[in-house]
Amino acid sequence: MTDNRFFDEMLDGAGGARAPYSDYADWFSGEDPKSLLKKSSEAEAFFRRIGITFNVYGQSEADERLIPFDIVPRIIAAQEWRTLERGIEQRVRAINAFLADIYHRQEILKAGRIPAEIIQNNEAFLPQMVGVAPPGGVYTHIVGTDLVRTGENEFYVLEDNCRTPSGVSYMLENRETMLQMFPELFTRMRVKPVSSYPAELRRSLSEAAPPNFNEGKPSLAVLTPGIHNSAYFEHSFLADQMGAELVEASDLRIVDGRVAMRTIRGYKPLDVIYRRVDDDYLDPLNFNPTSLLGVPGIMDVYRAGNITIANAPGTGIADDKALYSYMPDIVQFYTGEKAILQNVPTWRCSEPDSLKYVLDNLAELVVKEVHGSGGYGMLVGPAASKKELSEFEAKLRAKPGNYIAQPTLALSTVPIMTQKGLAPRHVDLRPFVLVSPKSVYITAGGLTRVALKEGSLVVNSSQGGGTKDTWVLGD
Known about the structure:
alpha+beta; five-stranded mixed β-sheet; Circularly permuted ATP-grasp type 2 domain-containing protein; CP_ATPgrasp_2
């Protein structure tokens, strides 16, 4: 049943299938619901067997969990996707130009387009990166841009993930599962592939290698904090898929001014490290001195231009949710164009007038920590109890600069498979972008995250959300 308050991506107001879903709806109408539910259970068993899990932190029952997978794909028309591609590429190019600027000449601050204190007082801004030029000039090599939809051709950027965006392994495994379970659908419908992502990731990282890399192909490694990290499955998966080494800090040391990896034949120099370790833990000599997850001296090698670190240290400033509100200005400043993809309206609680508005309307807004992620530390006003609202009000009054607020959007819905048939649930989308000195590559689709609980707007896996395969149709 369609809820007219929300845009249903599959069904129109009369209950008929929208154009992108027409072939799928015809196929679905001829299928046995019991058979589809059985396949749904088979998918769960498959994911459990190959170990697609994540860790949940900060809860008494914290443990490894399976990310629920829904077998009803999300389908996006070719024309819609072309608009999204243009907007995503514009935004990612602007972010890289912004990062280069704030760690060098800071022209955007001199021009008064964003306030200097939003950079200077920001814990994500790394003074150690000032004046450092990454090999190839690329700061954020892998980007996950979170998009939400509210209507026909109405897409908004919810946030930018420029540090260490996760989820691409789930996108790839979701597609592999759907190909195995419903091969007839891929014969029937022109779905753009996503399987080239690992090869594109290797190509993109290789193109960003320092100019003095070893003869032949650059040597690549994925640096993981280790098996207990929530995204360890993804770290090992990507290293395997792109033919790179999976390493921990204990496998690396500095040898003759290069970062070298321990092998059975001694230490071998590396050219590119795809790091999944946060800035603060990357180098105990330059950042957190107690870190056991980083490589002592790696920043000195990086500053000398003898290693590429993807993403570059200090890119987290572009993830800052207070800075997010300035992204339309940032896009225009560096590209000379208006932003193709719009931001969600945002109130910066650090500003007295905005704080007053947020406090007066807390029950109607979504409030987020400026450095928050994973759905933690946020308030969804319409779903909050009086006690939760009161507690969050105290947090806001104590540290207003830690928060931004946004309206509660009428997120679009996509059907999921339930025991009673199809039921609408809210979704977002994280397309994955690869940036090299030569090109910008955007995966055809990305990871659709779905709020499996009826009425919920929180799609994060850590908060009970699931995932779907995302189909971008060809012309």
